[in-house]
Amino acid sequence: MVNTEITYSISELAKEFDITTRSIRFYEDQGLLKPQRRGQTRIYNVQDRVRLKLILRGKRLGFSLAETGRLFDLYDADRTSRTQLHTMLQLIEEKKRDLQQQLDDIKIVMMELSSAESQCQQALRSLVQD
């Protein structure tokens, strides 16, 4: 069972996830994190920590903050929803398509660079022979 009484300061989370406190405040401004307040002090709970971890993982996988927020909203609305699962599957499929396109583009650029490299090397060899 998760202890929901554990709390974290913004600096503790920043240190744990190796990000700036400014980044955490930005995620809060975007509505992705909702810490409690004690005066000016932000108090983050276990759910905030999990959400921060998911935000950062989503970013590494290419999910926008809007997409992550959409998933959080779906989760908050209904934690066992078919809609949530279908939306997640749709987002995954879109990301896979995007990544495949990027991979194809990278392969083409690599071939073009290799061709340009060969032409440059050939031009250098012909200059040396002259």
UniProtKB/TrEMBL annotation:
<dbReference type="InterPro" id="IPR000551">
    <property type="entry name" value="MerR-type_HTH_dom"/>
</dbReference>
<dbReference type="Pfam" id="PF13411">
    <property type="entry name" value="MerR_1"/>
</dbReference>
<feature type="coiled-coil region">
    <location>
        <begin position="82"/>
        <end position="116"/>
    </location>
</feature>
<dbReference type="GO" id="GO:0003677">
    <property type="term" value="F:DNA binding"/>
</dbReference>
<dbReference type="InterPro" id="IPR009061">
    <property type="entry name" value="DNA-bd_dom_put_sf"/>
</dbReference>
<dbReference type="InterPro" id="IPR047057">
    <property type="entry name" value="MerR_fam"/>
</dbReference>
<protein>
    <submittedName>
        <fullName>MerR family DNA-binding transcriptional regulator</fullName>
    </submittedName>
</protein>
<keyword id="KW-0238">DNA-binding</keyword>
<keyword id="KW-0175">Coiled coil</keyword>
<feature type="domain" description="HTH merR-type">
    <location>
        <begin position="7"/>
        <end position="74"/>
    </location>
</feature>
